[in-house]
Amino acid sequence: MSTIESTNANSPVGRIADSRTRKTLDRLKPYSPGKPIWEVQQELGLDHVVKLASNENPLGPSPKAIAAIEAALPDLHRYPDAQAVSLRETLAQALELSPDQLIVTNGGDELITLLSETFLDPGDEIVVPSPTFSEYEFGAHLMDAQLVAVPLAPGFQYEADALLAAITERTKLVWLCSPNNPTGTYLAKNDLERLLRALPPQALVVYDAAYSHFATTADDYTNGLEFVRAGLPLVVLQTFSKAYGLAGIRVGFGAAPEAVIRRILQVKEPFNVNALAQVAASAAIYDIEHLTASREVNARGREQLYAAFEQLGLNYAESLSNFVLVELGELAERRYHELMAKGVITRYGGAWGLERHIRVSVGTEEENKFFIDCLTQVLEETS
Ligand SMILES: *Cc1c(COP(=O)(O)O)cnc(C)c1O
């Protein structure tokens, strides 16, 4: 028997492990990431594979971040700065906040877990829109808290009143992802403010602005930081994984009132953000050229995709982000696999309960074209 078999659930060792694990683990679903390029190349024997599945930056990392990483390599025998002092000062200056209003984390994902650990007791409730990013639910289950899902309105639009109606005296965290993953839709600034001002005292809003840099086409969008500056009860989540192109090094941050940050720091591990991530993020913030190029490529790419979808007669949700949710109908899952077989990795909507949709990340012009060509072919082949 191999080691893997001897630890599965039906073996004696597996049963002992099961009897000792926390009950809430049974509710944890594994995160399903976008397939990596090498895996699709190996499995399907393809040379040319384009990944449009994880909302990564198609231009690559900021060159300034790469230079900063290289310069930091000789000091890798040292532990990183546990408080990320230099990065927090840089961020504070760039965002007009105080360093005490900031916490740096091992990607935005770590902040989601830390917030869950800080605020959720068993039986507490979180309110989330549906569909949305799955990690909020993961955090709730991890802490044995309850999920209250509020469906988005038709067209995947946010409805502040529906969210407000779901908030009770048991609500601890209200997760608002804007632009929302996977729909690309957003919560208008007025609605966010109305919600913040109506919150019961035990509740806190987490405003996930992971994609805020791409929200270039709506005047009533906010990245939420103005409300942190105004002292309202919210945590703004940001990441370097998307617009800054640093998904592989894992760094993000939260901005919130100082009293909230102090509490989150109590559950943070000392060396949560590695030394290379800290210098890379500091450099990327000031790489305006890379950021501007990334936003422009994305804005043009979105239009390229919209035009193709219209040409093909497909419904899509207008996106403020770097991905587009498109409706392919009953055969969506099959078409997702057919696209993969042609070398385009997208994300099938099934995990979000969107069985008729796929989500496609905006790539470079050539990547988008390859996707559009493949999509056109599979639609012709299966129609
Ligand atoms: C990508 C993403 C994050 C954070 O990702 P990290 O790589 O962990 O920084 C947070 N929220 C949403 C909605 C995301 O899509």
UniProtKB/TrEMBL annotation:
Alphabetized UniProt keyword annotations = Amino-acid biosynthesis, Aminotransferase, Histidine biosynthesis, Pyridoxal phosphate, Transferase
Catalytic activity annotated for this protein? L-histidinol phosphate + 2-oxoglutarate = 3-(imidazol-4-yl)-2-oxopropyl phosphate + L-glutamate
The residue ranges of the Aminotransferase class I/classII large domain are 48-372
Involved pathway(s):
Amino-acid biosynthesis; L-histidine biosynthesis; L-histidine from 5-phospho-alpha-D-ribose 1-diphosphate: step 7/9
Pfam families on file? Aminotran_1_2
Q: In the UniProt record, does the keyword tRNA-binding occur?
A: no
- Which InterPro entries does this one have? Aminotrans_II_pyridoxalP_BS, Aminotransferase_I/II_large, HisP_aminotrans, HistidinolP_aminotransfase, PyrdxlP-dep_Trfase, PyrdxlP-dep_Trfase_major, PyrdxlP-dep_Trfase_small
* Family that this chain belongs to: Belongs to the class-II pyridoxal-phosphate-dependent aminotransferase family. Histidinol-phosphate aminotransferase subfamily.
- Name of the protein in its database record: Histidinol-phosphate aminotransferase
